[in-house]
Amino acid sequence: KAKGVNFGLAYGAAAPTLARNLIIALKEAEKLEASAFATYARLKSWQEEAANFMNLNGFTQTAFGTRRHATDDLFSSDRGLVARMHRRGTNFTIQGTAAEMLKIVLTKLWTEGVLDLRMEFFAPIYDEVVSWVHKDDVQAYCEMMKEIMTSAKPEKHSIPQVPEISIGYSWGHLHEIGREPK
Q: How confident is the model at residue 11 (pLDDT cuts 50, 70, 90)?
C-alpha cells in the first residue's frame, strides 16, 4: 500500500483514487493519505507551488530546466481539466527529472570506461541499470556505477541518489547487497 500511496499522492491522487487503485475502503485511504501528508510535510505545498508556477508561466519544468508547456486545459473554466493539467505538470517534473538523470547515467556508461569492463549492458529500467558482468569485474562495475549514479543529479540539488546494488547469476536470482558492496 505504501508504494501506491507514495506514487499516487506524488502525482496528485486523492483518497477516492487511492481507495479505487488499492482496492480498499475510503476511510482507510483517507487515513493513509493523512499519514503520508504528515510524513511528507512539503508534498502538498510543493504541489500547490507547482500549480501556481504553471498558472503563472504556462509551463512546468524539470529540476534540470527542461520545460513542458501546458495545453489550453490550464485556462479552462472546467476545474477538472485544470486539475488534470496540474497533475500532468507535477508528473512531468518528477518523471522528466528522473529520465534526465537516467540519460546522464547512460551517457557516463560510455564516457567513464564502464564498457571497458567485461560486461554487457542490458537495459535501463526507470531508476535501474541492468547489466551482465563477468564475475571478476563485478566489484569494479559496482564501484563505478555507484559513483556514476550518485553524481547524476541536478546541479542545484545537494542530495544525491543513493544507489543500492543487487547481484546474482541471473535476473531472477538477485540478492540485494546494499549501498556498499564488498
A: confident
The three cell numbers of residue 78 are 472546467
Angle at 107 between CA 142 and CA 178, to 5 degrees: 25
Alpha helices (H) along 40-76? 43-57
Name the grid cell of 181: 558492496
Please name the amino acid found at residue 174: L
Do residues 60 and 45 lie in contact, with contact meaning Cβ atoms separated by under 8 Å? no
Q: Please report the pLDDT score of residue 15 as a whole number.
A: 93
- ∠ CA(121), CA(123), CA(127), 5° rounding? 115
For 43-75, write each residue's pLDDT tens digit: 889 999 999 999 999 999 999 999 999 999 999
pTM: 0.82
Beta strands 119-125 and 165-168 are unpaired
- C-alpha 55/C-alpha 57 separation (Å) is 6
**CA–CA dist 167, 174 (Å, integer):** 5
| Per-residue confidence (pLDDT) for residue 92, from 0 to 100 | 94
**Adjacent-strand bridge partners of 130:** 123
